[in-house]
Amino acid sequence: MHPLNQVKGEYVRELLNKGVREEGRDPFEYRQIKITHSLLPNAEGSAQVEIGNTRVLVGIKLDVATPMPDKPNEGNLMTMAELLPLASPEYEPGPPSPDSIELARVVDRGIRASSMVDLGSLFIEEEKVWSLFVDIYVLNFDGNLFDACMLAAVAALSNTRMPKYENGEAVRTGELGRLKTNNIVTSCTFAKVGNKILLDPDGSEEAVADARITIANDEKVVRSMQKGLAGAFSQEEVEDLIGRSFDKSKELRGLILSSKSE
């Protein structure tokens, strides 16, 4: 850790030991969230999400492809995350980093496990299906990429237009229907610093966190969980955070639904 960051880290820990977050938030309060749709005119769907100073952009594309051998009647879902160097001094150009791979997998797992996208509806004909690409771009990093990227991916999928398949080609003009979705999945990420647990850690809080857990759920069921860092959560803490994630997911779903009508 850079010496200056070490000084900042000690300051953040000292505040948290006093029960205070640097921004004055409650322990289980999100920063301000903003969702903007349809920023990429050449994509089938897109959304930008800002959580505090963290900002991510997601674009959705559909192309005709062959199905997976074990799922011949379903379309393909592929999720990619790119940590752009402009987002943080820590990010460098080149092949996908372990952090970008983990980020894409966490988002993909939440969407896939919740069956948010009806992959059966992406079947075209024998040996032809739609491949659905979810491309995530981190534009600015200030903590909690998991929730920002999940929100952006789900918001983008919720406004995705389906191309038509005509005469062996994808047609993206004219009147197009929407991608068939079944529900809305969201995630809540909690960081543990010492004995304090925080929702939506910002960059400074993440830098000093001992443990992290991301819980993805829809309205009824926990769909996936991802534990990060070397620290641990007790069983009682995990059970409490699952309950809190269900409460907070109502707020997050409301933001997605209201943003679609704007």
Short description:
The protein is of the alpha+beta class. 29% of the residues lie in helices and 31% in strands. It has a single domain (26-260), classed as GHMP Kinase, N-terminal domain (Ribosomal Protein S5, domain 2).
Describe the structure.
The model has no long low-confidence stretch (mean pLDDT 94). The radius of gyration is 19 Å and the shape is elongated. Helices cover 29% and strands 31% of the residues. It is built from 5 helices and 12 strands. α2 (98-113) crosses α3. With 262 residues, it is of the alpha+beta class. The chain starts with a helix and ends with a helix. It has one domain: GHMP Kinase, N-terminal domain (Ribosomal Protein S5, domain 2, 2-Layer Sandwich).
Strand content: 25-35%
Total number of distinct structural domains: 1
* Number of E strands: 12
User: What level of helicity do the residues show?
Assistant: 25-40%
CATH architecture: 2-Layer Sandwich
CATH superfamily: GHMP Kinase, N-terminal domain
Shape: elongated
Secondary structural class: alpha+beta
CATH class wording = Alpha Beta
**If helices are DSSP runs of H or I spanning 4 or more residues, what is the number of helices?**
5
